[in-house]
Input
Amino acid sequence: MKKSIIGGIAAAAVMATSAFAEEVRVYNWSDYIDESLLEKFRTETGIDLIYDVFDSNEVLETKMLAGGSGYDVVVPSGTFLQRQITAGAFQKLDMAKLPNNGNLWDVIEDRLKKYDPENEYAINYMWGTTGIGVNVNKVKEVLGDDAPVDSLALVFDPANMEKLAACGVHFLDAPAEMIPAALAYLGEDPDAQDVETIEKAEPVLTAIAPYVQKFHSSEYINALANGDICVAFGWSGDILQARDRAAEADNGVEIAYNAPSEGALMWFDNMAIPVDAPNPDAAHKFINFILDAQNMAAASNYVYYANGNKASQEFLEEDVIGDPAIYPNETTLEKLYTTSPYGPKVQRTVTRMWTKIKSGT
Output
């Protein structure tokens, strides 16, 4: 009796392990992949793909630093990647299991070293800028033909924001992006790490916060596309998605994206494997699948973001590779800045400041 029970348990364990080995769990940003690629991965590998989404680095970081996220592949942005590497949240990539690694773009790899010094823990998925999306006609109606649509003054000058509030403004709910932007507007270093400089952003943001309809990191896409708002401070690809959705709907809404002339944040979203990933082998298979030049091009062609895969560029559609809002020219690239993660003490200040700004108290 005991032998049969033990044998049954062992058999069940083997079956469970076998079944689990055929599953990979991926946690990525919302609206961030051509879903036909997910089915292609399942078909080509026979691995069952569980694909969940989030819309802020803070949500992902809470899971990562708590441990036991249950995911095999996650997609943190640069500063969060660096902090999570330091915290021991990721395992080093096994490059022998990533034969498509040679497709990566050295220009982006070099910039990513700020967060992952030896490019050991992550590969770049997408990169882009944070800037200003406008409903061209509505903004002209409110501010006139000379509206500063390519300047941070559009969203940080209270005189402009008071008028724009009538047609709706959304901001990212992302202090690590909004505070550096406010500092750039002031002419300060957007990568400032001292509390004294960072606190200079508070009165700028507090002054315009009452005119912000919503702080949210994904809802602005549809809101812009539908004409429900006229300005969004958000991620380049999201705003370009809104532009294309409006064009497809033929609803008379014309959306434009501009990286601010004062400088824009250049960000990187990167695929990494948690240190406690249930199935790291399948995680490598998924990352290698994404590193395929044609697969990576399909993802960029769908989401309208630049990627860190040089080999994919020959497969990119012209309205992606040829759009300076997606692949900036050298002049714009020179003005792009990157930021470093805040230390624990500064992060507490930033979190308190952001809560106060959004609540108005």
Observations:
- Residues 170 and 220 are 6 Å apart (CA to CA).
- The beta strands are 23-29, 48-54, 73-74, 122-135, 169-171, 214-215, 231-235, 255-258, 265-272, 306-307.
- Confidence is low (pLDDT under 50) at residues 1-21.
